[in-house]
Amino acid sequence: MKVASVLIPLPVPEAFDYEVPEGQTVVRGDQVAVPLGPRLIRGVAAEVFETIGSNRRLKAIDQVLDDPRLPERTLDFVEWAARWTLSPPGEMAATALKGLRAPRPRPERRVRRVEGRNPARPTAARTAVLEALGARAMPGPDLARTAGVSSGVIKGLVDEGVLEVVEIEAVAAFDPPNPDHAPAALNPDQAAAAVAVAEAVTAGGFTPFLLDGVTGSGKTEAYLEAAAQALRADPTAQILILLPEIALTQAVIERITARFGAAPAEWHSGVAPPRRRQVWEAVVAGRCNIVVGARSALFLPYANLRLVVVDEEHDGSFKQEEGLVYHGRDLAVARARIEGAAVVLASATPSLETLWNAHQGRYRWLKLAARHGAAVLPEIGLIDLRDRPPDPQTWLSQSLREAIGETLARGEQSLLFLNRRGYAPVVLCRACGHRLTAPDTDSWLVEHRYTGRLVCHLTGFSMPKPKTCPSCGAEDTLVPVGPGVERVEEEVRGLFPQARTAVFSSDTVPDGKSARTLIQSMADGEIDILVATQAAAKGHNFPRLTLVGVVDADLGLRGGDLRAAERTYQLLAQATGRAGRADRPGRALLQTWTPEHPVLEALAAGDRDAFVEAEMAEREAASLPPYGRLAALILSSENAMAVEKTARDLAEAIPNAERLEVYGPADAPLALVRGRRRKRLLVRADRDVNLQAFLRAWLARVKVPASVRLTVDVDPYSF
Ligand code: ADP
Fold it and tell me: 260, 179 in Cβ contact below 8 A?
């Protein structure tokens, strides 16, 4: 009897076996419909094998579906990713099939000539229509426009049977990119980097690169040239460009379109489902060469993936923490390894993990030394707030105010950066000191003036600002504490009433379209002072932007998180790197109460190496990544007792292991979210310990009750 192991989207660690009916052929990667309880469910055949004399009573595969077979290496990748992240392989496979679950775009209605039929009355308008149409099929409105007639003329011809309406299935055409469409003249560093990558692509085989260059050094231009050379050598090559944020895709798509004379495919949650289906089908059929997308684009069924680029590879947004927990950058490297492709991790501020890999010689290190052309890096100054603290209830120091005034007078732009949404991060009662928190959640309510509401940034809960204190009942005693971007903008408007100001945060630009509009008006010089959260810190090029002010440079340094220093360094380096991208020199001013902090000293000195060296030494002393490995187990439930008990059970079941420690259980950093109690256990292991095997053995010993959710986070981003 033939048996197929089928991956179906259920939270279980194995595939399910089904009998292959007599006369059917099933091949690894085939999509099949299989019975599961009373219904049929879509799955992917992972393995097909022969059993002899088995007495197992297996259900049979219902149907081998007509959908494209998942390519071998895509399935290899899915299975590897599931093992690495300890995720259910069937759910990983379902991620790879997501595009197929979307509806097909509606067929397009077009008109065409019915052979041998002529109009009874050939008026001038009718003749114009038939001439414009020729032997083609055209959408009616287009035809009316081309022929310069009203739609009634076309309708008349259809009624008379001279034209007929046909439905044409909308098959997306992805024009092949032309590598020679608009090449850039690269500087020697860029050219060398592009050649190195392109040679690796052409030679074949897994080759990872770190493309390391300051903001504006031309990394994008360099990897696009590598893509062009790869396409010249192999016109069927597929190239995936991963970006950390949807807001960045538009600019990159425009650059690719300008460079190659054809638009790439776009893939992220903001793309309409019918379009996603078209992209999925084009990718698996090899009809599409360049994909620009978010981390989920890693799961597309590439027919011939030759090059993966992870732009802004240090960015924490590549880590997916809901649902399947994985790091997009790490999986990108794995995908390239499995495909035998090249992978380029690009950044001005690479993660310590990536730098470590480059130092060890595992990644080839390509460096772009200077900014392209005349642009120079901004001069970075620290403003010591202890010298002349700003007045109470204001957030901009005298020095920063003066700098903004000078910039404004020169007709240039300023970006004020504060990584805090809303008006004020905390609302407090002056009478009793009570701080307003979200219901059933461990987080402050943030005041938003634009919407007039108090918002929990964790759960999205919101409510109008109350008149009375919910704790003591006093009236009109609730006051905002501290600044958010809206409050800084208010101060700026008071100081510079003539300036055009705007706020860029996920509240003011909730979607890709509004982000594009705001970015465009900034690029067009319609905004003088932009107050922004990290949403605007990365990627964008604003030629007239010459001043970046960081309102609170100490913000990220306060947390005790593993990556607090690294993340702050990266964020501030990216933010300050926005200034002076074109022919005008820029400067950046950082307001701080702790100018002696090593992160700020390194930033001010423009000395990344000094920062990296100091931070690496600390990580090495504590055997933390990249010198060791981590994993987190997070338990959550509405039933606090059940969480406690499961946490204790886990703590008692820890297998013996060397060079590995388990910490906890302790309250998770967000101990209460939407009424769910959260506990966490942390694992630290030396690099050569098989962390996944340890976790699997451990989890096999404990029964987690259905009321408790267990999330395994291998290589957590925060710790
Ligand atoms: P990065 O990706 O390193 O931040 P970009 O590739 O975005 O840098 O380049 C920064 C700016 O310099 C862009 O406006 C880009 O068009 C321009 N640029 C980079 N390299 C070249 C080049 N070789 N010729 C012309 N312009 C370039």
Answer: yes
- The verdict on the CB of residue 568 being under 6 Å from ligand 1 is no
Tokens of 260: 């190659």
Is 288 labelled as part of a ligand binding site?
no
CB 632, CB 662: distance < 8 Å = no
Largest CA distance in the chain: 92
Residues 6+ apart with CB under 8 A from 132: 138, 143, 146, 147
Tokens of 336: 């390239």
- Rounded distance from Cα 606 to ligand 1 centre (Å): 20
Q: How far is the CA of 218 from the centre of ligand 1 (A)?
A: 4
Tell me the two tokens of residue 327. 């790091």
In this predicted structure, what is the pLDDT of residue 375? 61
Cα angle 570, 573, 577; round to 5: 135
- Distance from the CA of 535 to the center of ligand 1, in angstroms? 21
Instruction: Kindly state if the Cβ of 448 falls inside 6 Å of ligand 1.
Output: no
Beta bridge partners of 108: 168
Pocket residue to mutate for ligand 1, from 190, 212, 220, most atoms within 8 A of Cβ = 220
Q: What separation in Å is there between the alpha carbon of 700 and the centre of ligand 1?
A: 52
Q: With CA atoms as reference, report the closest residue to 660 among 634, 640, 689, 637.
A: 689
Instruction: Please tell me the distance from the alpha carbon of residue 368 to that of residue 348, in angstroms, as a whole number.
Output: 9
Listed residue (159, 163, 157, 69) closest to 121, CA to CA: 157
- pLDDT class of 71 with cuts at 50, 70, 90: very high
Q: How confident is the model at residue 440 (pLDDT cuts 50, 70, 90)?
A: confident
Give the Cβ contact number of residue 596 at 10 Å: 9
432 assigned ligand-binding residue: yes
- 529-550 pLDDT, tens digit per residue, is 999 988 776 667 788 889 999 9
Whether ligand 1 lies within 6 angstroms of the CB of 580 is answered as: no
Q: Which two tokens stand for residue 681?
A: 């256990």
pLDDT, one tens digit per residue, over 217-252 is: 899 999 999 999 999 999 999 999 999 988 788 889
ipTM of the complex: 0.97
In this prediction the pTM is 0.87
